């Protein structure tokens, strides 16, 4: 699952993860949308989420929700301007701008 509030970037990373990575990808435009989807479908292996998003669930809160409700689901967080104090321990992170192929490699490593 790709959770990104910027539609152009969300579409681009989804396309790369699908075409280059071979992943089946579901998109969500907010943490709130992601939680609604995850409540209905608990078969998501990995969530790639931006940290800064509007709504009730930003990326940090979404990650905490996933850890509490779907502990087997892996999370990869991303942000262009994350304070190091806001990083969650034991949660994979990639700074924006990121290399798309590096994202694929990181997700594959998380799933293995």
Automatic annotation (TrEMBL):
It comes from the Bacteria. Keywords: Phosphoprotein. CDD domains: REC (cd00156). It holds the Pfam family Response_reg. SMART domains: REC (SM00448). Residues 1-111 form the Response regulatory domain. Gene3D superfamilies: 3.40.50.2300. SUPFAM superfamilies: CheY-like. PROSITE patterns: RESPONSE_REGULATORY (PS50110). The modification 4-aspartylphosphate is found at residue 50. One of its GO terms (biological process) is phosphorelay signal transduction system. Signal peptide: none annotated. This is Response regulator. It comes from Asticcacaulis biprosthecium C19.
